[in-house]
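User: Predict the structure for this protein chain, please.
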Amino acid sequence: MCTIGIPCVVYMGAVDIERQAPNVDRMRQLGAEVIPVTTGDQTLRARWTKLSEIG
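Assistant: Here is the predicted structure, written as structure tokens:
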């Protein structure tokens, strides 16, 4: 649950999570659940592919 009281789930490429570690830490501090995408090249493109499968 994010700080404003709504669920917040962020799908992010595993490589991008490493590259953006300070930003990911801040998102988690604010209550977001950050889910790494480990398929494909593990970047933004893989995230969009994963989201299209989920949704």
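The chain has one domain: 9-54.
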